[in-house]
UniProtKB/TrEMBL annotation:
Heme in keyword set: no
Stored InterPro entries: PDDEXK-like_dom_sf, PDDEXK_AddAB-type
Record's keyword terms, sorted: ATP-binding, DNA damage, DNA repair, Helicase, Hydrolase, Nucleotide-binding
Composition-biased stretches (Basic and acidic residues): 1-10
Organism expressing this protein natively: Micromonospora cathayae
Protein name: PD-(D/E)XK nuclease family protein
Region feature Disordered, mapped onto this chain: 1-32, 293-313
Residue intervals of the PD-(D/E)XK endonuclease-like domain: 43-289
Length: 313
């Protein structure tokens, strides 16, 4: 879906003074009747960036050189630290997957960026460690996931999708083992079944995992570590197909916008800004003429107040 530009009348130059290098700068494919269209190579975050705000997509994936990002966010550091600690917990031999190992694992993976000061960082470390201890208490150390931070990939008529899952479990199903997509969440707000159902990323992971492992994969779960809750959804073949179709529609919109820029359309019109609450948390707020007019957040703000929760973050 194309959205109207929100920050300026049509026809003016880019707000950052940058002209994105259109993809036509890449070696051009010569077309002929019946030739299949180039597949759109994507990840969940690439699709999500465009769906949230085409301008943010442009800053991230089209403009070259890319505009400078703002400083790192403390909540991203916290999330990355917890994810890597869990990944490394599964890399331990089974007899060492014990709660006592967690402090060392977290220390070894701790990302320090974005915190207001040492006291806030120490408090975040304590909080993360308590989440991890409570979480691994719910896990059977002897159960090996099918994949940990495993990349799954699939092609459709439009997409060449790839994405890194947090974890893929195998659980008994009525007709044998079935795969479950597990996604860890560390935001301070809880998530519910609607978030699991609506997550395009989880659905695409499930769709891809089913094809990579040739086993049914319909269940998706959001594991919210701060509250110890699990939000789950059982997809059907039809609901997964709908999510894939939605992703393909987004990919078509992106390719159409990129073609328009290559054909001379002003990049600000092809990739309109869609301002909202998320602008305060956007890496490109300082270079975005629309976002710059809206209040920004400090890199550590989410440590005091949570960002708007989304199932994709
Ligand atoms: S600041 Fe807001 S409008 Fe600008 S790119 Fe970011 S999300 Fe889009």
């Amino acid at each position: 879906m194309r959205r109207p530009s929100a920050d300026r009348p049509a026809g003016r130059s880019s707000g950052t003074g940058r002209t994105p290098r259109p993809r036509a700068d890449q070696p051009e494919q010569l077309g002929f009747a019946g030739m299949p269209e180039r597949l759109f190579v994507c990840t969940p975050s690439k699709l999500g960036a465009y769906e949230d705000c085409p301008r943010r997509y442009r800053y991230s994936y089209v403009d070259r050189p890319a505009p400078p990002k703002g400083p790192p966010w403390a909540h991203n550091s916290l999330g990355a630290s917890v994810h890597t600690a869990l990944k490394n917990w599964y890399a331990l031999p089974v007899d060492r997957r014990r709660p006592e190992a967690l402090a060392g694992l977290l220390k070894g993976t701790w990302v320090r960026d974005g915190y207001r000061d040492d006291a806030q960082e120490r408090e975040a470390f304590r909080r993360a460690l308590s989440w991890l201890e409570a979480y691994v208490d719910t896990l059977d150390p002897a159960t090996e996931p099918v994949g940990v931070e495993r990349v799954v990939a699939v092609k459709t008529a439009v997409l060449a999708f790839n994405g890194r899952t947090d974890r893929i479990d195998a659980r008994p199903g009525p007709d044998g083992p079935e795969l479950v997509i597990v996604d860890y969440k560390t935001g301070r707000s809880g998530l519910d079944a609607d978030d699991a159902r609506g997550s395009q990323a989880l659905a695409l992971y499930a769709y891809a995992a089913e094809r990579v492992f040739r086993r049914p994969c319909r269940r998706v779960e959001l594991h919210h570590l701060p509250t110890g809750t699990v939000a789950a959804h059982e997809h059907t073949v039809e609901s997964l197909a709908r999510q894939v179709g939605r992703a393909e529609d987004t990919a078509r919109d992106i390719m159409s916008a990129e073609r328009a820029v290559a054909d001379g359309t002003d990049p600000d019109d092809a990739f309109p800004a869609v301002p909202g609450v998320r602008c305060g948390w956007c890496d490109y707020r300082r270079v975005c003429p629309t976002g710059a007019q809206l209040p920004g957040r400090e890199p550590w703000s989410a440590m005091e107040r949570p960002p708007e929760p989304t199932a994709e973050s």
